[in-house]
Amino acid sequence: MTSTEAAAIALQDHAALWSVGEISASDVVNAACGALVAGLDTPGLRILAACTRAEADYDVHDLLPAAIDELGLTFHPVASEAGQEAAARALARRMLAGELKPWELTFRIHQRYGHELPLTEWLAELDDEYAILEYGERTVDQVNAEVTAEARRLAAHPRVPTEPTDIPS
């Protein structure tokens, strides 16, 4: 994966996580800065990256969709099922990157979506498994392995384009 592709995935993940309230607007601005450093460059991305922390809470809502669109990425409407799925996939990638423990992934997914989001139903069930470990025959390592396998499955789809499309000059 090229650094621009990784930066595009990171920015799209940050957009999804921000849209469900998982991260702050300043985290999105930091991801925009990282995307610029990695070689992605559009007018909207530059404007987004230039936001101060104080401006981020007010301006990201308006600036992020345009910056994402200029890069040929997808910004899902807030509270849409597609947006929830994108956020779940982003959390899975974070777990695989070592930013979350397997139980933290299942807890966040279960807490946010319960058993209502079909894509994450298995992770919600695995969160239930953590709760009953002391009464069952399974071990933490076994449940962690299942969570990791499910996170890999979620993280594999969908990928963003390798190169941004239709970048204005």
Description:
- It is a single chain.
- The chain has eight helices and no strands.
- By secondary structure, it is mostly helical.
- It has two domains: 3-70, no CATH class; 81-155, no CATH class.
- Helix 2 crosses helix 3.
Draw up the topology in text.
Blueprint (H helix, E strand, L loop, with lengths): L2 H17 L5 H14 L4 H7 L3 H18 L10 H16 L5 H12 L7 H11 L8 H16 L14
Q: In the residues, how many domains can be counted? A: 2
- Counting helices, strands and paired strands, the structural category is mainly alpha
State the shape: elongated
Number of strands: 0
Give the CA-CA distance, first to last residue.
25 Å
Helix content: 55-70%
Please identify the oligomeric state.
single chain
- Biggest sheet: strands, sense, closure? none
Q: How large, in whole angstroms, is the Cα Rg?
A: 17 Å
Residue windows where pLDDT falls under 50 for at least 5 positions: 160-169
The succession of helices and strands, N to C, reads HHHHHHHH
Features:
single chain, 0% strand, 169 residues, elongated
